[in-house]
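Homework help board

Subject: predicted structure for assignment chain

Our instructor gave us this sequence and asked us to write out the predicted structure in token form, then describe one feature. I got the tokens but I'm not sure how to describe them. Can anyone check?
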Amino acid sequence: MSSYTTRSAVLRSSPGRYEVLTLDQDAPRRNEVRVRMHAAGICHSDDHFATGDQNPAILPIVGGHEGAGVIEEVGPDTVGYAVGDHVVFSFLPVCGRCKWCSIGLQNLCNLGQHLGTGTRFDDPGTYRLSLDDAPVGQLAGLGTFSEHVVVSTASVITIDPAIPFTSACLTGCGVGTGWGSSVNAAEVSAGDVVIVMGVGGIGINAVQGAVHAGASAVIAVDPVAFKRDTAVKFGATDAYEDIAQAAERARELTEGQGADSAVVTTGVATGKHLGDALDAVRKGGTCVAVGLGDTFTKDGDINLHTLILHQKRLQGALFGQSAPMADIPKQLDLYRRGYLELDGLVTATYPLDRINDAFDDMKAGKNMRGVIVFD
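My token output:
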């Protein structure tokens, strides 16, 4: 029997729109905590489920996978967590025991297979939310668009209480995905010329990561003037409306060779985006694919001739190839010491009841990151 109720933003169809409903919620069990949410980031990935580009395995499902809050209850026999702890969630869970975790690839942890199912990682087919006695899923096992969440400790990281929730929550997806795509996946090094294609909530952090890694030129590409201007404020040396202009600028800087790497962080990625970005990099260069598109799209627009004969690399990147249990604390430490900007990423905040306004503003290009606040 449920112990609580909570208000949550729910998708009842895909395609569909988020509805704020009151759900029944179970108390936390072993290796689970119940968290009062304070902030939840608005990410394009959540919208992919609303548009039908990605399909959840269960409906209804509570959206949201970036979040931060305070633990209000700890499940029985759950060690390492206490009531009152401030926490942030990693949208990718980390078991610490599977092959991928054991070789340092936490972002590929086997628990990730359940991200779209809305179920419990350690007990597939069971749920902690219900509506009229029917199960309700939690996206990424989190469902952060909810006033309270019951989550697995595989997704929970304790943080310094001095860090604002609105900034901390962004490290659970957007910051690590963008930052890591430059630092880890593209392997940006001092003096590199880097193109970042799509400068939203992910791409702006790819800009920050490239700057931090020592790139001599960071060329931002976005059709929205506000985002181009913001990219320059965050360290981009150049900003253009389209990839052709960026590619030409990269060739100007490299005696015609092209960028050392290009990071594709468009909101809805296509094969053409990847093809254009791959064409913009030099021989031996790297194109990093980050943005998601329609899950049913299997084709691309890749020049196999130059991919092979110019020895280029097309690299996928999940969560920026991060090890979240190590990298999220590291990013928050960089934030505290002034090396990573988080506060300025938050363009606007919204109450839960205006969640669809937040998504509309995101798609209109008005925000770098919108954040739902629960206080």
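Reply (TA_rk): Your tokens look well-formed. For the description, you could write something like this. The first helix runs from residue 44 to 51. That's the kind of observation they're looking for.
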